[in-house]
UniProtKB/TrEMBL annotation:
Protein name, per record: Acyltransferase family protein
Any one GO MF annotation of this record: acyltransferase activity
InterPro entries listed in its UniProt record: Acyl_transf_3_dom, Acyltransferase_3
Acyltransferase domain boundaries: 5-331
Domain of life: Bacteria
Entry keyword Membrane: yes
EC number annotated for this UniProt entry: 2.3.-.-
EC category name: transferase
Residue spans crossing the bilayer: 43-62, 83-107, 119-138, 150-178, 190-210, 219-237, 249-266, 278-297, 309-330
Assigned keywords, A-Z: Acyltransferase, Membrane, Transferase, Transmembrane, Transmembrane helix
Amino acid sequence: MQPIHSIQVLRALAAFMVAVHHVQPDAAIVAARAGLPFARSDLLPWMAGVDIFFVVSGFIMVHASRELFGRQGAAPTFLKRRLARIVPLYWAMTSLFLLAGLAMPAALNSGVPGLGQILASYLFWPAVSTQGVVQPVYSLGWTLNYEMLFYGLFAAGLMLPGRWTLPAVALVLAVLVGAEGLTGPLPLPFGFWGQPIVLEFAAGMGIAVLRQRGLRLHGLSRVAIAAAGIAVLLAAARGGEGADGWSLVLWRGGAAVLLVLAAACGREGIVPVRPVRALAAVGDASYALYLVHPFVIRGLREAMLRAGLAWPHLYVTLALAGAVLAALLLHRGLERPATRLMRRWLGN
């Protein structure tokens, strides 16, 4: 299936936003070492990149799997595809993180994980960390715990008649969120799975349905919807959003829905210009960018401090550029070959 370039561009921007969020505390450390001022940028709520990822994920699962609906054996086929796509790189980054923790424990921001947390991390199962929060050993994997929930529900939905797949998935997500909200904190894993952010997957599925039914945005309407999404993000960064899960989802998730709608429901058949193709290539490597950027950020911070180059703005520029370059190399050199190998091993 041909990729939608605007969706790939949006994936690139989402991963880059998360990287911007994570580079700033390290830049503050670099600045403090030299006694220089450093004011973090709050132009956007940078972690809204995760919300964009979740809406995009809901869209892509429907868009890329529509030939599976109502087909016998669809559920295992879907799961094999998703496992081959997600597992190799995440397991590699988790293992690298554990090795780095053994070699340089002072460079990490977390305590020594227990065996239970390590096993839960590799199995994408929500577990309490040594810091008392529900996250895997490699903390970025919290989003993948949600993704795996969504994939499991989607695979189960594929065992139903095709017309019931999406309503059933959306209903289960809504029931999880409703149960957590109405009855108070649920035990793990349901308390983790029942957070409002999972509804963003359902929103992405809805956008895919609209596209399949022929919705196309042209000209000013598409620009206006994208501009509205950016405006919501800007408003959220200036204090519009609250701290609770519902407020975050309404602001960040609402902006993500608008941006994905504009990206997914545009005209087809337009040859993208060179900058769009370049960003789409980064979008292809967005999973690698999401997982590898903390290693680049922390590694470069230590290298610059030891070299006496405590210039925060140079550090931010080099860290973000290095993260993108590392992601492109990792995508080509490890992610794609490992995905192909695992698909062959799974017989898919």
